[in-house]
Amino acid sequence: MRALHVEGGAHLYGGAQQVLYLLEGLSARGIENHLACRRGCDLALRAEPFAQVHGMPMGGDLDLALIPRLYRLIRRLQPDLVHLHSRIGADVMGGIASRLAGVPVVHTRRVDNPEPRWLVALKYRLHDRVIAISEGIAQILRAEGLPASKLRLVRSAVDAGRFAQPCRHAVITDRLGLPRGAVMIGVVAQLIERKGHAVLLQALPSLLAGQPYLHVLFLGQGTLEQALKRQVAQKGLVDHVHLMGFRDDMAEIFPCLSLLVHPALMEGLGVSLLQAAAAGVPVVASRAGGIPEAVEDGETGLLVPPGDADSLQRAVRLILADERLGRQFGQAGAARVRRLFSIETMVGGNLGVYRELVGEVRA
């Protein structure tokens, strides 16, 4: 089977990381992978052992020229199917190009933001199958009118073994420029409004009153970087909140976190929650979107109402004050990730959708 994958993300995290896992797993199962992505991006470089990479300009949702670019590629490759992984223009432009070329289309939906029913009716007409990465997203799609015959559920995965390593606390604090006695909690997410960083900043002053060695790491990039820096300065939190940007040593940082906090207002699933759990780190997160599938409330962490700074503060304080409880949550989370969110399961789920669709077309 020959599959053309389309991913418009510029950085190797989130959806692009899932694409890399998928390409490697499919290649091991004998699938001929081709990848259309931004020329020279991180994914293009890392995917070369598992796919033939076709770099091209990708200008986002308004890049109409992406249609003829992808159309020409599809006509040349003649794949059995096209898998659209990104919303960054690929979901619509890639769908149109595939339809014009007469090739079956799979689209993976990774976000839980609602769309109007008229848009769902138009956009998803381009796709033969829509894969939701969480039941939360699947429920939204059903409510918006997506036919059940098109919808499939394949949850995102995490490389659990990569994150299950001991913490080298002194090495990590020195590397990050923090005091050796720092108690570190992390927010691993894009710096955008719906990830809820501002909610944690609102809760932080009262937390610091009982945790003077507490240091909060914002790990990620995004359009709110400067705004968050101003908020941190205005609240007098410069000594305790650190914007670390995107890092490639997260597998070493995760095990040294006392807690992962994810105060997102909207979330498809939250791969960083799975990575933290794989590292044995307890989680406090919002009860939003697909997050309850990643965090089992009262078993692997605590869930709070989205946007509720007081509830967030109480949950964080509870876990930081009770090391035994945090350790219990972390151990349960690591076991759950290995059981439910393996790369093997994710690859098998996607391949099952491919075989189903290609079998229908051939029949």
From TrEMBL:
**PANTHER family to which the protein is assigned, alphabetical:** GLYCOSYLTRANSFERASE
Residue ranges of coiled coil: none
Q: Which residues form the Glycosyl transferase family domain?
A: 177-334
Q: Alphabetically list the UniProt keywords.
A: Transferase
* Molecular function per GO: glycosyltransferase activity
Q: What is this protein called?
A: Glycosyl transferase
Q: Which InterPro entries match?
A: Glyco_trans_1 (IPR001296), Glyco_trans_4-like_N (IPR028098)
Q: Taking every annotated instance into account, which residue ranges of this chain make up the domain Glycosyltransferase subfamily 4-like N-terminal?
A: 14-160
Q: Superkingdom of this entry's organism?
A: Bacteria
Biological process (GO) annotations held by this record are: carbohydrate derivative metabolic process
- Please verify whether the record's keywords include Transferase: yes
